[in-house]
Structure formats: C-alpha cells, structure tokens
Amino acid sequence: MPKTYSNRNDADRVVELLKESANRLAGRVIKVMEVCGTHTVTAQAAGVHKLLPANVKLLSGPGCPVCVTPAGFIDQVIKLALEENVHVMTYGDMIRVPGVNDSLDDARRRGAKVSVVYSVNDALERARKNPDQRVLFLGIGFETTAPATAYAIKTAQKESLKNFLVLSAHKTIIPAMEALLEDPETAVDGFLAPGHVSVIIGSGAYEPLMKRYQQPCVVAGFDGTQMLMGLVRILLQIIAEKPAVENVYQSRVNREGNRSARELIEEVFAPAGSVWRGLGEIPQSGLVIRPEFGEFDAGKVFDLPQPEDHDRPGCRCGDVLKGIITPDDCPLFAKACKPSTPIGACMVSREGSCSAYYKYRNAGVEI
Amino acid sequence: MSNEIKLAHGGGGILMQELIRENIVPALKSKSLMELADSARLDVDNISLAFTMDGFVVDPLIFPGGDIGRLAVCGTINDLAARGARPLALSLGLIIEEGLCLEIFRQIMDSVARTAREADVEVVTGDTKVVERGSASGIFITTSGVGQMRRDMDFGPDRIAAGDVVIINGYIGDHGIAVMSLREGISFVSTVKSDVAPLAEMVGKVLDMCGPAVKCMKDPTRGGLAANLNEIARKVGILLEEDKIPVRNQVRGACELLGLDVLSVANEGKMLFVVSEKEAQKALEALNNHPLGRDAAIIGRVDDKAGLVRLKTSIGGERIIDTPYGEELPRIC
C-alpha cells in the first residue's frame, strides 16, 4: 500500500523549507493549482492549508472527473435507463450528481436500474451473466480509469458480448491544463500535477506545454508531505526563475509513464473535443470510442449528440474549477449549496473542491 | 428535506439527525427522546433503569468476526453500557424472509445465545414474524434491553469540560471495513475482522476504577467517531491527534481505496470515554487490563472551541472533523 501518513519529522522539515522559500518571495503572492481532485481532498484531509505560509495559496483545478462531467451527460444516461431499460453501472459519486433536474439516484428511486461498481469488471460480469439485460458502463475519469474501460471494451469484443455498452465521458488532463493557461482569467504560478494520472502518462507528458508557457510543474503523490515537497520545488523554481517539470513521486512515476496502458487507450479511443462542466468545450480533451469498437459505444448505438452543459443560475463551479475563486467566494456556498442539497457538481463529488472545503473546514469556518 | 426517504437517511449522519429531529421527536414529544441519548433513563422508586432498543438489517448476515445475531445482542448491550448500566434482560424480535435457510437461522440463534452468555444477560422475551420473499433480506432483528444504572451516576455531554481527555478502547473502523470488504470483494483486507463485542463488563471495570470522573461515554457505531464526537461537542470543542488514533494498516488502506474517512466508519465493539484529566491514566489502565481494551489509547482532548471537532493531522496540520452527511454505504448493522 502507498504510505499515506508520513513521518512527522519529515513533514516538519518540509514545512520549514517551505517557509524559508516563501520568505524569499516575500511581497509576492504565489498561487499554485493542484489539478487533481485527490490532491484537493488530501490537502484538506491532511490539513495542508493550515501549514501554508501567508503568501502561498493552493487552488483547486478541474481534476475531479465527476465535477467536470456536464449535466447533459447525466440526463442522457437517465433517459437511457428509464426509456431503453439499460442497467447503468457507474463509479459511486456519479449517482448523486444532478443533471438538469434529476440525478441517477432520483432515477433509481423512480425504478431505473442503477448500480455502483468499484471496477468495470463488475459491469462485464453482469453482462456475461445476464445476456438479456443491456449493461451500460459510464466511462468517467482521466488517464487513470480510461485504460480499464479500454480493456473492458476489448474484452467484450473478444468474447462477442452483445449486451455490454460504454458511454464515454473520459477526458485527458493536458488539454485542460492548456485551456487554463490560455484563459486570461486564470492566473496561476505553477501546477502540482497528479500522481495517479502521471503513472500512466509520465512526467514527460507535461514538458512541451510547460516549456511553451514557462510554468513550473511538479508531479506529487497523495499525502500531505508529498504535496508540501511539491510546493517547495515550485517555489524554488520561481526563485531561480527556472520553470521546469519535476517529479517528487519517483517511487511510482517515471518520465515515460506506462506505455502499455497508453497504447490501450490509443487503440480503443480517439481524442475529440469534449464539454467540461463549467469550462465549456475544450478541443482534443475527450476520449471517444473508435469506430472499430462502435457496437459497444452507447453514444453511437443510441445516436446521442455531444452532451450539453447547463450550469444552474448563480452556481460558480466553473470559476472554482479554474481557480479564479475559492469555494467560499461563491454566493451559494454553504447556503443554498450544501452536501445534502448540492447545486453544483463541485459540492457533490467527494473529490470536489466545494465538498472538501465544506467537510474539512466546517462550511468555511476558520479554525 | 425532499419528499421521499432516501437510503442515506439511515446512514447515521446529518440526514438521519434531521429525520429524527424534524419528524420523529416532534410527533412523539417525549422528554427522554429529546435527549437523543443511547438509552433512556427510567426512575422507578430508588432504582434508575436504562432502557434501549436497536434494529439490525446488516447484509451479509454472516461476516468476518461476527454475524447479525451477535451484532443484535452487542448493539443493545453497548447502548446500555454507554449509560453506565449493567444489562438485566434483553428482548429479541425476528422478522424472517420466506426462504431463509434453516441452517443459517440456527447458526444466528446459536450466536445470539453465545453472545448473551458472554455478556451475562438473558433473552427473556421475543417475537417472530415471517414475511413474503422480497419483503426483507434474509432476516431483520430488533433487540431491546433493560439495565440497572449506577446509583447517583449518569453519563452525558453536560459535565464535559475543557481539559478532559478522550479515550478509545482500541482499533477503529474494523467493523465497517470487514463488512464492506466482503460486499465489495476487496480481498486484501480479508484479514480484518469485525470488532463486534459486548462492552458492559469492560465499561463496568472503568467505572469501578474512576467513578464519576468518567463524564460521558458513546459507542461510535454508524457515522463512526466523527458523528459521536460532534454530538458531544455542543458546548465544548474537541481536538483529536491523528497519530494517536489506533487504525490498522489494512483498514487505512481499504479506506483509501473506497474513499472513506476512517473516522466516519462504523465500529461495533468500541466505546469513547471522556474522562477528567486527573483520572485519565487510571481509566486507561483499567481498559488495558481488559481483553477488549488492550489497545486503548488517549486520542484527544476537550477544549473551549465550542461546537468544533478538529484533527491535528500527522503532518502537523489541522482540519475539521465534520458530522458525516449520510453516505449511501451498504447496510452494515
């Protein structure tokens, strides 16, 4: 198992280093974006924010796959579940995300077949055991979950399963980071890049983009000390004025990544424009199922259009995802929008920044 | 609140509290119910009785370390124990689904009997119903219990003051993870067993040793430590230390995999004690001398930040421990 709780002495030393580096940048506010939802939760759960020097800010980016799945996607799935009698199988957090009106959970209470799975294999297994029931697996997530979906599609083809379908909302992280860097409203001084995604794509994948935009970017793992170490490296790059891609998660991530997982993705999926909740369409940021595997593509089988986004009035998830505001700057936060009554997707997913902010900071109360 | 009961309303979190506060207590208006304590107190002549009940709908019926029968006995005994009461008698209500295998039923009844003997209490009355296939999942059990409270000794959040310490009698999260890992097929945690155990005897030893220096006790079942500590931290604050909380590595690993906070995961053999600082070592000693308290530890301290339960994290940061919302987790008790 990955070591989650690091030695306190290590952490103390890293905090000391962070303070020293931040002092050398006194007078400047350094904004670092953690791109990944797991980093968002780790930072809150480990109390990282409390340890940050006053001039270092950690912002959450668009890296929670549930948060960036557009409302229209949920609506399409609900419609398939209720009207086409497919059995929807999905990773857990998706079932509570509101579409335009309802969530999959609401649909389930109205009689739709919706199950939570921890692995796409469970969906395959259900399809094998129930040949008369069409099973629809929701392809959600970045390069971390896409290889498993790709593998399942290939397996279904090999086994000639006729009742296994995938609706892909898979996304890739680099085009999203590029869109953020292009957006004049987003002003970040560096990125903490996600450990899990980087295991697949390799730290080298960030190099062309970061070189072009002259941004510091450090790959970090998922514990508090790793994140603090990543921040130290970013500050040191800023002090030295030498932005680069670095990796403090060398136990798991290398420069090249996992080639066979990437090849699997490339074999089954093709890059295409994709709509991100709150961010709009980002070119080349989605993964659509290639025509060779079209019989497993629910989008094709049911002739579905690209899902649209419908942000609810007043919801500022988009600005939260871009790091323009923190969750407590949103007028709905902790008032109309709470974990029990989420309005935006950032409040629904456990890895959403608003939900993590609410849970670990008591609705924004300073501790 | 929406106009339908959701599964999450039974999760032991905020949603459940809302359901009870808004729809159950106002309808019944009993003073004792309003306290929302683990057991009600009944004063009869010179004796104070504790009275409680609990329902059990766990799936699967048999899990590593226990089964629904043992759970049903322990759940009620531990609710009595949280009020310092010695269990006197239990009732047993069975709602059985048509089709339940008789062998499994016998196994569950044996377990009820064994656990009651272990806790030195008898099942003295009961009820049995059978419902059509599909109306229950195997078997649902309810138990109620009566216990005798200690003379002039009661336990609740009112006497807690800044400076008191928080003690737990061992590893947390075992029950929830044992049940969930079986359901979700997470094989690497297959060595984790439920901690389900009757705690009245152990609690008795602590009270013999420390008396009213013990201010409050809670058994952190659904909603885990997070829900319980938030219940008691109304007029005071509590600061836990992550490094001091006993958590098995497999449980920590499973929590990471399932995206759970171990502080919100259910226990069935744990008791939280809030004890005055002066007597804390004595309480710890009494626990350590009992088989169910061998791994007991002081995990935190009460302070004056009213209403806030916080965690000093292992890297030295700090964060809030919130009442769980009521996750739609599988039925675990």
Question: Which helices and strands occur, and which strands form pairs?
Answer:
The complex is a heterodimer of chains A (367) and B (333).
Chain A (H helix, E strand, L loop, with lengths): L7 H17 L5 E7 H9 L2 H4 L4 E8 L7 H13 L3 E4 L13 H6 L4 E3 L3 H10 L5 E5 L6 H13 L5 E5 L4 H10 L7 E5 H7 L5 H7 L3 E4 L3 H17 L4 E3 L11 H10 E8 L3 E10 L8 H4 L15 H5 L23 H4 L4 H9 L6
Parallel strand pairs in A: 1-2, 1-7, 3-4, 3-5, 5-6, 7-8, 8-9
Antiparallel strand pairs in A: 10-11
Chain B lengths: L13 H15 L2 H4 L5 E5 L2 E10 L5 E2 L2 E2 H14 L4 E12 L4 H17 L3 E10 L7 E10 L16 E4 L5 H11 L15 H11 L3 E5 L5 H9 L4 E5 L7 H10 L13 E4 L4 H9 L8 E7 L5 E4 L5 E3 L13
Short recap of the structure:
Chain A is of the alpha/beta class. Chain A is 40% helix and 17% strand. In chain A, the strands form 3 sheets. Chain A has a 5-stranded parallel β-sheet.
Describe this structure in words.
The complex is a heterodimer of chains A (367) and B (333). In chain A, strands 2-1-7-8-9 form a five-stranded parallel beta sheet. Chain A is 40% helix and 17% strand. Chain A is globular, with a radius of gyration of 21 Å. Chain A has a domain at 71-172 and 257-301: Rossmann fold (3-Layer(aba) Sandwich), CATH 3.40.50.11740. Chain A has helices spanning 8-24, 37-45, 48-51, 71-83, 104-109, 120-129, 146-158, 173-182, 195-201, 207-213, 224-240, 259-268, 298-301, 317-321, 345-348, 353-361, and strands at residues 30-36, 56-63, 87-90, 114-116, 135-139, 164-168, 190-194, 217-220, 245-247, 269-276, 280-289. By secondary structure, chain A is of the alpha/beta class. Chain A starts with 7 loop residues before the first helix and ends in a 6-residue tail after the last helix. Chain B folds into two domains: 37-148, 2-Layer Sandwich (60s Ribosomal Protein L30, Chain: A); 157-320, Phosphoribosyl-aminoimidazole Synthetase, Chain A, domain 2 (Alpha-Beta Complex). In chain B, strands 9-11-8-12-10-13-14 form a seven-stranded mixed beta sheet, sandwiched between helices. In chain B, a hairpin with a 5-residue loop joins β13 and β14 (318-320). Chain B is α+β, with helices and mostly antiparallel strands and 333 residues long. The model of chain B has no long low-confidence stretch (mean pLDDT 91). Chain B starts with 13 loop residues before the first helix and ends in a 13-residue tail after the last strand. In chain B, 30% of the residues lie in helices and 25% in strands. Classes of the chains: A alpha/beta (367), B alpha+beta (333). Chain A binds chain B through residues 1-2, 4-6, 8, 11-12, 15, 44-51, 92, 95-96, 105, 109, 118, 223-225, 228, 339-340, 350-351, 358-362, 365, 367, and chain B through 4, 6, 14-15, 18, 184-186, 242-243, 249, 252-253, 256-259, 261, 305, 308, 310-320, 322, 325-326, 328.
